[in-house]
């Protein structure tokens, strides 16, 4: 029987976390990643499950996620170590019948627990399931350097930041036409920041936490990673442009409209008009 280590979802998590660390987005134990699975994904690997799965109650029930399995990164775990010991740094969990808590089916060895941002992840999964009809399966949080830098110099206004990112790189409007959500600074790892993030995730696939990092979502690990990577590339360009004295030329509103028509996307109107 094939080992769960070779399962597509374990190997995918290893690749995504390693790539994020190599990008410089996930220093030390910074960042976390969750992927929603189906029962069929984990069914072939029951022989690898813990004989007595640990149960952890959630601070608030999430019936919308009842019985759903996820693969998650662990609390205090370094992304750079995921490839070295997946079973110690990753875990497969499954919510119970009413979403009041979850069992750790595999991984998270030595009494490790899932990321402290799990409330934000689960609430964001609920929001993206609703917003995309179940299409989005991944929530990724990381400390993308240039996106963080922009929150120190731009007004924390979602339309302003969205418009600047669209102008910073042509592909941005195509990749995230729904724009970027943004929160006030909040203490991480709490239900409060999780609820605020999920509210923004109702209408955005990308949400900035000022002076901290970014949350991205998508149907696959590649989609979520690529979304953040695209926004971060634009942010890097903007950081360089701002350091050279600011924009003298940029993509106009009319050109953004032409771009959206060419690729069949509907850009966030308030960002287009700002």
TrEMBL record:
Any one of the GO BP annotations: rhamnose catabolic process
Domain Class II aldolase/adducin N-terminal, residue spans: 11-239
HAMAP family: RhaD
Entry's family note: Belongs to the aldolase class II family. RhaD subfamily.
Recorded metabolic or biological pathway in which this protein acts: Carbohydrate degradation; L-rhamnose degradation; glycerone phosphate from L-rhamnose: step 3/3
Pfam family, one: Aldolase_II
EC number: 4.1.2.19
Subcellular location: Cytoplasm
Gene of this entry: rhaD
Function field: Catalyzes the reversible cleavage of L-rhamnulose-1-phosphate to dihydroxyacetone phosphate (DHAP) and L-lactaldehyde.
A GO cellular component entry from the record: cytosol
Manner of cofactor binding, per the entry note: Binds 1 zinc ion per subunit.
Self-association and partners: Homotetramer.
Binding site for Zn(2+): 141, 143, 212
Database matches in PANTHER family: FUCULOSE PHOSPHATE ALDOLASE, RHAMNULOSE-1-PHOSPHATE ALDOLASE
Chief site of localization: cytoplasm
An example molecular function term from Gene Ontology annotations: rhamnulose-1-phosphate aldolase activity
Gene3D superfamilies documented for this protein: Class II aldolase/adducin N-terminal domain
Name under which the protein is recorded: Rhamnulose-1-phosphate aldolase
Catalytic center residues: 117
Phylogenetic lineage: Bacteria, Pseudomonadati, Pseudomonadota, Gammaproteobacteria, Enterobacterales
Cofactor: Zn(2+)
